[in-house]
Amino acid sequence: MKGPRILLVDDEVVFTTNMSKLLANRGYDVVAVNSGDAAVEAVEKEKFDVVILDLKMPGMDGITTLEEIKRLSFFTEILILTGHGSMDSAFRAIEMGAYDYVMKPCEIAELVIKMEGAYARKRVQEKKA
After folding, report:
1. In Å, what is the CA distance from 15 to each residue of 4, 8, 19, 66, 75?
2. CB of 38 within 8 A of CB of 61?
3. Which of 28, 42, 119, 124 can pair with 23 through a Cys bridge, CB separation 3.0 to 4.6 Å?
4. What is the pLDDT of residues 51-83, one digit of tens each?
5. In whole angstroms, what is the distance from residue 69 CA to residue 67 CA?
6. Alpha carbon 50 to chain centroid distance?
7. Sequence-separated (6 or more) residues with CB below 8 Å from residue 30
8. In whole angstroms, what is the distance from residue 51 CA to residue 68 CA?
9. Does residue 29 register a pLDDT over 70?
10. How far apart are CA 110 and CA 51, in angstroms?
11. Are the beta carbons of 46 and 31 closer than 8 angstroms?
12. pTM of this prediction?
């Protein structure tokens, strides 16, 4: 079985570069972008199974990006990246349909576990449709 196609969205270029490499080394197909606008553009052009989305970004924030991605791609699951100061926003994102959240900085093992859970939920939702 093919693994999930991942879109990694964070305004911290060093984070997206390093995390993309770590995920790619584990066999994941990863596309990294550094803004909400770029994420929406990517989802308009390509299909992704899971979006790993930072909440705190300049320009289009994570909540607005989440809304746009859900509008464009109903079955794409979204995993939120959040810091301690934005837990309320993380809970709001889950209420809006995000799968779960991961606290930054995060360990790759924790991220992979949650990402795989999001991918499993996506597959179940697609089968029901």
Report:
1. 20, 10, 6, 20, 26
2. no
3. 28
4. 999 999 999 999 999 999 999 988 999 999 987
5. 6
6. 5
7. 6, 7, 8, 20, 23, 24
8. 12
9. yes
10. 15
11. yes
12. 0.94
pLDDT tens, 76-111? 999 999 876 678 888 999 999 999 999 988 899 999
Cis amide linkage into residue 105, ω under 30° from 0: yes
- Which amino acid is present at 53? L
Query: Predicted confidence band at 30 (pLDDT cuts at 50, 70, 90)?
Result: very high
CATH of domain 5-128: 3.40.50.2300
Going by DSSP bridges, is the β-strand pair 50-54/77-82 parallel, antiparallel, or unpaired? parallel
- Two tokens at 65? 């990006």
Place of tokens 């991605």: 69
| C-beta neighbour count of 52 within 10 angstroms | 26
Amino acid identity of residue 30, one-letter, is V
